[in-house]
Amino acid sequence: MVAEVFAEEEFNSKSMEILEKMANMPTAAIKLTKKAFANSYNNTLKEQLELEADLQQEAAGTEDFIEGVNAFLQKRKPEYKGK
C-alpha cells in the first residue's frame, strides 16, 4: 500500500517524519489494525464487519485507549505504552 510519494531529495527526511509519527502511535491499536487487514482477504463483508466490531471492543479495553482519551480531554500529547 502506498500512502504518499516523495521526490528523491525529500525521501529520507519525509520517511523519518512518518517513522517518528508511527513510533508514537498506540502499538496495541496498530496490532489490531494489522489483524483486521490480514483477515480482510479471506473474510466476507459480514465476517469482516463482525471482526472489526470485535477488535474495536478489544481496543476500547486497552490502557492505550484510556490514555488517548485522557490526553485528548486534557489537551496533551498521549504517552502510549502498548498495553
TrEMBL record:
InterPro entries: ClpP/crotonase-like_dom_sf (IPR029045), Enoyl-CoA_hydra/iso (IPR001753), Enoyl-CoA_hydra_C (IPR014748). Signal peptide: none annotated. Pfam families: ECH_1. Transmembrane segments: none annotated. Belongs to the enoyl-CoA hydratase/isomerase family. This is Enoyl-CoA hydratase/carnithine racemase. It comes from Chryseobacterium camelliae.
